[in-house]
Write a structure and sequence with these properties.
By secondary structure, the chain is α/β, with parallel strands linked by helices. The protein has one domain. The chain contains 3 helices and 8 strands; from the N terminus they run E-E-E-E-E-H-E-H-H-E-E. The strands form 2 sheets. Strands 1-5-6-7-8 form a 5-stranded mixed sheet. The chain has a 3-stranded antiparallel sheet with strand order 2-3-4, with no helix packed on it.
């Protein structure tokens, strides 16, 4: 899980990836030329099946579609699902713990949730417990990935990412 501020581009980035990217600040004081890291620059893959990035608008609709059409979404090799937000999102101190607990809970508590449902429920629970100062703003969590991976759990997951790339949204606040 990666937590940061997020922003989105409103025009196509012709210098980099030919898409409307979403961005995270780099905070490297020696990097004066490009202080922002584009989502399309993330090298997800290898043994990383699932990733969550909690940052405002990281999977924003227009930008997600633009990156998908340009073929620059960060899905590589074995990445099954990328969890994030398609709107503004407040960070709560418990969301990582809640996501992990939802994915690992015992059968007595209803059994482990899918990676996707655990993400939505972590957001919903975090905002209900801590509240948010985003009055009037709906918070929508998005999970994107291979369509054959949306029922993945930590123990039972698709053997490959052979499905089509798609996404599902869920409003977690209010």
């Amino acid at each position: 899980m990666f937590i940061d501020h997020g922003s989105y581009g409103t025009t196509i980035d012709y210098n980099f990836n030919q898409a409307k990217d979403t961005y995270l600040p780099g905070d490297n004081p020696s990097d004066t030329g490009a202080p922002w890291l584009g989502l399309s620059e993330f090298g997800l893959g290898g043994n990383l099946r699932w990733m969550a990035i909690l940052a405002c608008n990281i999977l924003r609709g227009q930008n997600y579609s633009s990156m998908a059409n340009a073929g620059v979404l960060p899905f590589k090799n074995n990445t099954h699902l990328l969890c994030g937000a398609s709107t503004v999102a407040a960070v709560g101190e418990d969301i990582g713990r809640l996501w992990a607990e939802n994915m690992t809970q015992s059968i007595l508590l209803g059994g482990p949730e899918t990676v996707q449902q655990a993400w939505y429920n972590a957001g919903r629970t975090q905002y209900q417990l801590a509240g948010t100062n985003m009055t009037g703003s709906a918070v929508v969590f998005r999970v994107a990935g291979s369509d054959n991976c949306f029922s993945d759990t930590l123990k039972n997951y698709a053997g490959s990412t052979s499905g089509s790339l798609t996404f599902q949204d869920n409003q977690v606040w209010p």
